[in-house]
Structure formats: C-alpha cells, structure tokens
Amino acid sequence: MPSNRTVNAVGDKTVKIQTTGNEKNHLTVVLACAGDGSKLKPLVIFKCKTMPKIQNKHGVVVTVQEKGWMDNEIMKIWIEKVWHARIGGLSRRRSLLVFDSFEAHKTEQVKRSLKSENTDLAVIPGGLTSVLQPLDICLNKPFKDRLRQRWMTWMAEGIHELTATGRQKKPSEELMCQWIDEAWREIPREIVARSFLKCGITNSLDGSEDDLVFDSSSDESFEGDDDLTDELFASDSESDFDGF
C-alpha cells in the first residue's frame, strides 16, 4: 500500500522508500451498499488457510481463502453474513442486487441462495463496470485513499515490531480490520446515494432525475468541499491499490 508519491530534494540520485517488504501480499475487501445511501458490512478475505486469531471488534466480516480471492464458498458466506444482515434482510424483503460479471457471482448455487433471500440478480455486462457500477465509479477510490492514508500514518510513526531477521512487521490483521472499518464508515452517505443515481439505478421513473445519469458536474450538496466533489466523480481506475 505504499504511496505513489514521495518528497525529496531535487537532484537526489537515490530516494529511499520505507516498506514492510509485504507489497506483493494482498487481501480482498468486498464492499456493498444500498441506493438509500446505507452501507453493508465489509467482507475481508485474508490470504491464508486458517482464520487469524483476532478479536475483530470492528464492523467487518472476516474469512480466509488460500489465494485471498472471492470464490463460490466465500460468496455463500457473504450472502449469509452480509446480505442477509442488511436492512430488510431478516424479513427477506424483495430486493435487487447489482453485481459485475465475475464468475463466482453467477454460479447456480449463488443464484439459488439469492432466490431464497427473495433477491433478484442483475449482472453488469463485461466491460461496463466502470460505467454502471456505483462502487467502481464513485466509492472505491475514496475508500482506498482513506485506507492508504492510515497505512502511511502508521509507517510514519516509526515504532514497529521487527521479525527475527530484522525486518519491520506488517500491520496486524486486527489493525487492518480496524482501518477497513474506519475508512468505509467515513464515506458520506450522500456520496453512496448519489453514486446510484449517476449509474442510472435508482433514478425516478418519471424522468425527473435523468439528468443525473453520468453527470460529472459539481453537486450542490457538496458545494464548498472540493475534495468531496472530486471523490464523488473520480473513477476508481485513476488509482491503483498495492498490498500491505
């Protein structure tokens, strides 16, 4: 998760960047939200075979997978522990779930599980995620920016445990869960609701909100807050996210 920027004197031939040596390690965070602006619990998938020993007092759901990726079994966990726990989930209120076309999202087992939850599934065609998915268009980038800022602050503190070989230890799983929870909570509800309108998902059927589809102009709701407006209309494709 190192920053893609550094500050150094002009003309220096060597610029040292402090890392934990874990830049190629990764985890997966599954984010989901609703058209009213509410946010579901993040699902954190750690790259390991056994569940890490963490207290996890944070608002996240934790699981593991050998490669740290989403698969059919993890989808079952997401539906049971995240989707079912949403507002209206216990009563199985009829809902529409918008997914990208990732294979694990479309298995027959997943379809059956969602049907039992009284949930209709809409799959975004390949190549259109950056146009039709609210998370990709408006929410992933500010989330990643907030997560990266926490890592940079932690690195700058300079008081860290070392491995037996003298290398700095990476952040603990507990701390990463805390960062993920905090970063997701900080995304304003207004941005979440607006992202669905921009993708044309929750717009009024009478056409009164059609002008909000793909609208990249400033929103009066965020007038005076340039950073918030930039986050709303910046595509996730503008920012890469590296490992811890």
Account of the 3D structure:
33% of the residues lie in helices and 9% in strands. The protein has 244 residues and is an alpha/beta fold. Helix 2 links the parallel strand 4 and strand 5. Helix 1 runs parallel beside helix 2 and helix 4 runs antiparallel to helix 6. The longest helix is centred in the middle third of the chain and has 24 residues. The radius of gyration is 20 Å and the shape is globular.
Q: Give the overall shape.
A: globular
The appropriate CATH architecture is 2-Layer Sandwich
Roughly what is the average pLDDT, rounded to an integer? 83
Low-confidence stretches: 218-226, 231-244
**Termini, distance in Å?**
5 Å
CATH class group: Alpha Beta
Which percent bin holds the helix content?
25-40%
Total of helices: 7
Q: Report the biggest beta sheet as strand number plus sense, adding barrel if it closes.
A: 3 strands, mixed
Beta-strand proportion: 5-15%
Structural class: alpha/beta
What are the defining features of this structure?
244 residues, alpha/beta, Nucleotidyltransferase, domain 5, three-stranded mixed β-sheet, two-stranded parallel ribbon, 7 helices, 33% helix
Question: Any chance you could write out the topology, listing elements then pairs?
Answer:
Elements: E1 28-30, E2 43-47, E3 61-65, H1 72-83, E4 95-99, H2 108-116, E5 119-123, H3 129-132, H4 134-157, H5 173-185, H6 189-198, H7 226-233
Parallel strand pairs: 2-3, 4-5
Antiparallel strand pairs: 1-2
Summarize the structure.
The chain is α/β, with parallel strands linked by helices and 244 residues long. Helices cover 33% and strands 9% of the residues. It contains seven helices and five strands, in the order E-E-E-H-E-H-E-H-H-H-H-H.
